[in-house]
Amino acid sequence: MPSDWLRVIVTLWLIALAVIDVRQRALPHMLTTGPLLLIGGGFAVRALAPIIGMGVPNAGWDDVAMLLAFATVLLSDTWLAGLPALTAISIAFVLGTSVGQMIVIGWLLALAASQAGFMGAGDAKVIMVLLALYPDPKLGVALLVVTGVIGLALMLLTLRGATGLWLMSITRDLIALKFPARTGEVGQLNVPLVPLLAVGAAIYLWGVI
Amino acid sequence: MHFINETSGQSMIEWLVVAVIIVAVVGAILLTLFTTLSGKLRAVNDAL
What we know:
Shape of chain B: elongated
Number of domains of chain A: 2
Low-confidence stretches of chain B: none
Largest sheet of chain B: none
Radius of gyration of chain A: 19 Å
Oligomer: heterodimer
């Protein structure tokens, strides 16, 4: 069970971000980029300190993999980012533990979704910070389920009777091993994601699952 | 540093729902595969 103080702080942080996201559709650097850089700096210190002879308790290959995932974030403007990304995945799965694997995969997926334009960069940073604080598959499941259920409800409201056709076209594309086609202008629905993430994280943090 | 400088809080729910469906389907397939494999391997191990 996560520590109580951290749970309260993370919950308040998410509530503040959700309010800002709904009002402004943008997230301030102070509450997203700041914590992300602090966490990335922490990974760097833990991974590099043993090289200069400083002892860090419980430092290991996970820290090296997470530092490389952070390097991928910093290099994400160029194709060079593929190098630290692949190295991070290899180290996490060959030498690391489930904690490093969860963080590396979560960070790279959130970064890829942001770079592909599915997800705002602010939303992706919130997911990265949450996964770094709580590298637990249950948190990932809670975020995915809440996003999926509420997202599907929003799609139902938007597409109404055509929802069945949309789901059928996704299924057909997936069976054919193709990336699902877009629904066009009808289905494109931009939403502030942080309120959904806040609900998913709250379900995890306050022990419902 | 585009990702670091960007502050957008808007996401395309259509694509995210598709991503969740893909993760759920692929996850269920992998889980079924590993559970079946683990059962078979346990049966082989018990038979030895």
